[in-house]
């Protein structure tokens, strides 16, 4: 491939990635415009999905915090991780990093320049367990998301995001307790 073609291909790929990011931010902003602070994935917090939390006694945890365009988020991530561990213990769930079950907390924060509420965020908490399709015994065992809840919104501080993360952890605690009295 000629050198100029290679440079053009890299430049075109970079443009399309930039356009996808702009499109994602635009679509998220439009969703926020029509419903600031909205619970998402409510369909995954129904009676059927809550039943999968029955007798969930151990789990590993995974906390992902991504902050686009901001300062270090490590102290925030540490506080959230500790809060999640405390609440899992409260539910009677032993935090064990070698467990087959996984509670995953994902927080994505994007700074929106020139806005009064300049942090756009998405929070998702999900439970993954090993599962197999009953109609295909040869399918093998895979990690399957059996329960989830989420929230997205706009705000001006990490404090507000932390409050909403804690609210989503409470949604999990309530779902777990509803089937493990």
Structure description:
The protein is built from four helices and six strands. α3 runs parallel beside α4 (158-179). 41% of the residues lie in helices and 29% in strands. A six-stranded mixed sheet has the order 1-6-5-4-2-3. With 181 residues, it is α/β, with parallel strands linked by helices. The N and C termini lie far apart (65 Å). Residues 5-24, 30-36 and 38-43 have low confidence and may be disordered. The longest helix is centred in the N-terminal third of the chain and has 31 residues, at 3-33. α3 (74-90) links the parallel β2 and β3.
Q: What is the count of β-strands?
A: 6
State the oligomer: single chain
Helix and strand pattern: HEHEHEEEEH
Summarize model confidence as the mean pLDDT: 79
State the share of residues found in helices, binned by percent: 40-55%
Which structural class should the secondary elements be placed in? alpha/beta
Strand order of the largest sheet: 1-6-5-4-2-3
Low-confidence stretches: 5-24, 30-36, 38-43
Largest sheet: 6 strands, mixed
Q: For the CA atoms, what is the radius of gyration?
A: 20 Å
* Proportion of residues in extended strands: 25-35%
Distance between the ends: 65 Å
Helical run tally: 4
Shape: elongated
List keywords for this structure.
41% helix; alpha/beta; 4 helices; six-stranded mixed β-sheet; 181 residues
Task: Describe the structure concisely for a colleague.
It contains four helices and six strands. The chain is an alpha/beta fold and 181 residues long. Strands 1-6-5-4-2-3 form a six-stranded mixed sheet.
Write the layout of secondary structure elements.
Layout: H1 3-33, E1 38-40, H2 47-51, E2 58-68, H3 74-90, E3 94-95, E4 102-111, E5 119-131, E6 142-155, H4 158-179
Parallel strand pairs: 2-3, 2-4
Antiparallel strand pairs: 1-6, 4-5, 5-6
Helix pairs in contact: 3-4
């Amino acid at each position: 491939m000629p050198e100029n073609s290679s440079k053009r291909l890299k430049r075109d790929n970079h443009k399309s990635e930039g356009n996808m990011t702009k499109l994602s931010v635009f679509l998220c902003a439009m969703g926020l415009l029509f419903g600031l602070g909205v619970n998402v994935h409510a369909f995954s917090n129904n009676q059927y999905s809550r039943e999968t939390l029955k007798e969930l006694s151990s789990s590993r945890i995974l906390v992902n915090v991504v902050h686009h365009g901001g300062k270090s988020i490590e102290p925030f991530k540490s506080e959230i991780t500790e809060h999640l561990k405390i609440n899992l213990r409260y539910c009677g769930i032993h935090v064990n990093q070698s467990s087959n079950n996984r509670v995953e907390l994902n927080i994505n924060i994007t700074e929106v320049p020139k806005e009064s509420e300049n942090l756009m965020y998405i929070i998702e908490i999900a439970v993954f367990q090993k599962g197999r399709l009953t109609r295909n015994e040869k399918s093998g065992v895979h990690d399957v998301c059996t329960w989830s809840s989420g929230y997205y919104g706009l705000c001006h501080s990490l404090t507000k995001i932390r409050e909403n993360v804690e609210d989503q952890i409470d949604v999990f605690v309530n779902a777990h307790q509803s089937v493990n009295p």
